Amino acid sequence: MDALPTPSRPLRIGTRGSALALAQAHETRDRLMAAHDLPQDAFQIVVIKTTGDRVLDRPLKEIGGKGLFTREIEDALLDRRIDIAVHSMKDMPVLQPEGLVIDCYLPRQDVRDAFVSRRWESVAALPPGTVVGSSSLRRRAQLMHRRPDLRLVEFRGNVQTRMKKLDDGVAEATFLALAGVTRLGMLDVVRGVIDTDDMLPAVAQGAIGVERREADSIAASLLAPISDLPTTLRVEAERAFLERLDGSCETPIAGLAEVAGDGLRLRGEILLPDGSLSIRGDREGPVADRRRMGRDLAEELLARAPADYFDLMGINAERRSPPVR
């Protein structure tokens, strides 16, 4: 932007069009309104449909991974059709296109996964052979590691779509991010919350990031007051861990950083998609070392993995050592 937003020249906020994405964009707008005493009509929500929203009948791995939910939005940002973009950080690739930056994170919601079923009370209550729906490689691998007697089916779509699939009998249970159902005001669908010791969440789950053009100083000054420092520290540690690994939707990876005072604890997990392998580790140290801790933990887990881990994942050799920033 060249000047502060006004009703005649509003700040254009780019987002996907799902109910959850819109709730996150509205939260961002409302926080900006409060921080700068601006009216609602000084902001415009711009809905952008992504490839990931259009193609719902195939697993993400088959059609390109995390960038499917961000590419069109980032193109709009680079083309100046929008001024900022609001993202669920668990959907974001670890590297942004040249000229874009994410340095604003809203206060993080509950990171845990929610168990959802019309019939069963918990994962432990599921009888052998029960059909569970999930599109998340991470959740599928974690569940198969603990309950190889269950049947997994592909289960893509927004929260409302997945609830309809349960009603239609496509599956008897699924998992949702607790942060998402909280933001949607749909906690009534949750049968139980999964402890992070049982199911470590996706990297940056529950965190909203706001992307901008790196050279846009007006957007930077607008966003600075609404950025949450504890969330920033945690997400930076987790994404450094993810970056040293593959960091796409092709690898089951989980990670969670927690901050207490000047200290940070980071837990991480890598798995094979069929659940036959799970390797966990953790690091503790000062928050100033958060990125190094993330990279070191990733190196440790890779050192403990089979020598052919990346081959088993079908990951090309040139992608095995992502650049460290």
Provide a quick synopsis of the model.
By secondary structure, the chain is of the alpha/beta class. The chain has eleven helices and 13 strands. Strands 2-1-3-10-4 form a five-stranded mixed sheet, sandwiched between helices. The chain has a five-stranded mixed sheet with strand order 7-6-8-5-9, sandwiched between helices. It has a three-stranded antiparallel sheet with strand order 11-12-13.
Q: What is the element layout, followed by pairings?
A:
Layout lengths: L10 E5 L3 H18 L6 E5 L3 H4 L5 H4 L7 H8 L5 E5 L11 E6 L7 E4 L14 E3 L3 H10 L4 E3 L5 H9 L5 E5 H6 L8 E3 L13 E6 L3 H7 L5 H16 L8 E8 L2 E9 L6 E9 L3 H15 L4 H5 L12
Parallel strand pairs: 1-2, 1-3, 6-7, 6-8
Antiparallel strand pairs: 3-10, 4-10, 5-8, 5-9, 11-12, 12-13
Helix pairs in contact: 9-10
